């Protein structure tokens, strides 16, 4: 997850850069511009993960480095996994769930019906 967070920083930085130039360099620290920037960053995160999980053999760049693969994934399951991960990973609930799950799967994998396997 630490490696993935570095990659997500780059994706968010790129999204912010695009937004800055598309908005004409306006300040996006409050109001509707801030909300629009946040929506753009989440959309870019979703595009990154969904493309990797669905088109790159179930692996993001970080997952390839660690030889981890997402299996049993469909477009609907990938979207559900992304939404659940956006909620449960930052709160720590998904990470805590691993210690109690019989298959050692994350909560967002359990809810989406996907599995992580070592390749």
Provide structural commentary.
This protein has 6 helices and 2 strands; from the N terminus they run H-H-H-E-H-H-H-E. It has helices spanning 2-22, 31-55, 61-65, 75-91, 93-97, 107-112; strands at residues 68-71, 115-118. By secondary structure, the chain is mainly α. The protein has a two-stranded antiparallel sheet.
Residue fraction in strands: 5-15%
Shape: elongated
**Average residue-wise pLDDT:** 94
Number of strands: 2
* Terminal CA distance: 17 Å
Radius of gyration: 16 Å
The count of helical stretches stands at 6
Indicate the percent of residues in helices.
55-70%
Task: Give keywords.
119 residues, mainly alpha, two-stranded antiparallel ribbon
Concise overview:
With 119 residues, the protein is mainly alpha-helical. Helix content is 66%, strand content 7%.
Write the topology of this structure.
Elements: H1 2-22, H2 31-55, H3 61-65, E1 68-71, H4 75-91, H5 93-97, H6 107-112, E2 115-118
Antiparallel strand pairs: 1-2
């Amino acid at each position: 997850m630490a490696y993935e967070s570095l990659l997500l920083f780059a994706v968010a930085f790129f999204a912010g850069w695009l937004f800055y130039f598309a908005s004409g360099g306006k300040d996006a620290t409050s109001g509707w511009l801030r909300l629009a920037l946040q929506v753009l960053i989440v959309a870019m995160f979703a595009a990154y993960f969904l493309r990797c999980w669905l088109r790159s053999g179930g692996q993001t760049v970080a997952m390839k480095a660690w030889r981890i693969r997402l299996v049993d994934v469909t477009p609907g399951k990938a979207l559900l996994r992304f939404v659940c991960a956006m909620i449960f990973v930052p709160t720590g609930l998904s990470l805590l769930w691993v210690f109690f799950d019989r298959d050692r799967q994350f909560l967002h994998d359990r809810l989406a019906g996907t599995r992580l396997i070592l390749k």
